Amino acid sequence: MNRSIHLKFWFFDNYWWLLVLLAAVATGLLVFIKEPVASVAAMAGAVLSLLYFVQKQRLEEVRLFRELFKEFNERYDAMNDRLARIRDIDDGEFAQGEAQLLIDYFNLCGEEYLYFSKGYIPPSVWEAWYLGMQQTISCPRINELWRGECAGGSYYGLPLRPFKHA
User: Fold this and answer.
1) Between vectors from CA 127 to CA 125 and to CA 128, what angle results, nearest 5°?
2) Helix (H, G, I), strand (E, B), or coil: what is residue 103?
3) For the chain, does the N or the C end have fewer beta carbons within 10 angstroms?
C-alpha cells in the first residue's frame, strides 16, 4: 500500500501537536538568536495560518470522503443481493444480466481504488472493501470473468489478484 497515503492520514490525525511542536521550536530558536518580538509574532501568525489551512483542508477531504462513501455504499447496496446469489453458484454459465452486473461491480471497485490511491479513502476503509472484493472474486465463475477483464487493463490498476483454481 502506498506509504504517502498512510503518511497523509497520519499527518491529519496528528497535525495539531506537530504544529504546536513546530511553534515551540521556532519560538525557542527566535528567542535564542534574540530576534525582536515582531519576528516571534510573525512566526506565531504563520503557524496559526498553517493550522487554519490544515483544518480547512481536512474538513474538505472529510466532506468529500463522506460523499464518496455514501455514493459507493448506495451503489453496492443496490447490487449486493444479486451479487450474493451469483457468488452462491459455483459453476455454470451466468444468467442474463449477471455478467453485466459483475462488470458494474468491478467498475465500482475500480472507482473505489482510484479514490483510495489518490488519498481520499482512509486505508482502514479501503482494507475492509478490499477484503470484500477478494471474497467476491474467490468464486470460480466470478474469478474467471475477473481474469478476462484484467487482461484489458481496466479498473485503474485495481490490485485484485485473480486466483488460479484447480
Assistant:
1) 65
2) helix
3) C
CA distance 143 to 21: 50
CA-nearest of 79, 18, 81 to 51 is: 18
- Average pLDDT over every residue of 143-151: 88
**Would the pLDDT of 165 be above 80?**
no
Domain contains 140: yes
pLDDT grade, residue 164 (50/70/90)? Answer: low
27-62 in b/e burial notation, b at 16+ Cβ within 10 A? beebeeeeeeeeebeebeeebeeebeebeeeeeebe
What is the DSSP track for 57-101?
Answer: HHHHHHHHHHHHHHHHHHHHHHHHHHHHHHHH--SSPPPTTHHHH
Let me know if residue 162 belongs to a domain.
no
Is the predicted pLDDT of residue 117 greater than 50, yes or no?
A: yes
**Residue 23 domain boundaries:** 3-157
- Measured between alpha carbons, how far is 74 from 78 in angstroms, rounded to an integer? 6
- Longest distance between any two alpha carbons in the chain, whole Å: 80
Residue 146's CB is within 10 A of a number of other CB atoms, namely 25
Q: Is residue 165 a part of any domain in this protein?
A: no
Closest listed residue to residue 146, CA positions, set 131, 130, 162, 165: 162
